[in-house]
Amino acid sequence: MFSKIVEQSIKNGFFDEVTEDVLNNKEQFNTMVDVFIDEIINNLNELRRKRVIRNKKLKLRVLCPRNKRYNPSKKQCVRVSGKDRVKKKRAMKRAWMKKRGKKAAMVRKRRKSLRKRKAMGIK
After folding, report:
1. Are the beta carbons of 9 and 42 closer than 8 angstroms?
2. 61 near 50, Cβ under 8 Å?
3. Distances (CA, A) of 57 to 54, 109, 122
4. Which of 77, 61, 79 is nearest to 16 (CA)?
5. What are the pLDDT digits (tens) for 37-74?
6. In the predicted model, is pLDDT for residue 4 greater than 80?
7. Whole-angstrom Cα distance, residue 68 to residue 77?
8. pLDDT (tens digit, 9 = 90+) per residue, 72-96?
9. DSSP letters of the chain?
10. pLDDT digits (tens, 9 = 90+) for 13-36
11. Contact yes or no for 46/77 (Cβ under 8 A)
12. How far is the C-alpha of 9 from the C-alpha of 34, rounded, in Å?
């Protein structure tokens, strides 16, 4: 089991920054081992789920650590590639530009729904 965890850590890039200096220095080595043990513990409890409401129904959303995303086919959190990051950045920029034009309508609708909630005594 430990070898599988080490292999997965190598794939995730945990040992990319490890050099001989780190291995020879006891303090740095001990901190690296502590971080590695923390990562092992996180891997064991990796798939945390959060309840969210989508389409008026309750669903469970998988929470992954930073720089990872949920892969449904593997049923685990996988590292986000550089290609996917660039794609996401471009999509967010496009979404921001579209959103800018629709901002006034969004604000009007939000105010209207807040007025309704206030009248119902929700907020």
Report:
1. no
2. yes
3. 5, 22, 19
4. 79
5. 777 776 665 577 888 878 877 888 888 888 888 888 98
6. no
7. 6
8. 898 888 899 999 999 999 999 999 9
9. -HHHHHHHHHHHTTTTT--HHHHH-HHHHHHHHHHHHHHHHHHHT--EEEEEEETTEEEEEEE--TTEEEETTTTEEEEPPHHHHHHHHHHHHHHHHHHHHHHHHHHHHHHHHHHHHHHHT--
10. 766 666 666 667 777 777 777 777
11. yes
12. 14
The answer to whether residues 49 and 62 touch, using CB atoms and an 8 Å cutoff, is yes
Token duo for residue 78: 């996988």
Which pair of tokens denotes residue 22?
């780190």
Return the amino acid letter for 107.
V
- As beta bridge partners, residue 57 has 54
| 89 and 83 Cβ atoms separated by less than 8 Å | no
- Is pTM beyond 0.85? Reply is no
What is the rounded CA–CA span in Å between residue 13 and residue 7? 10
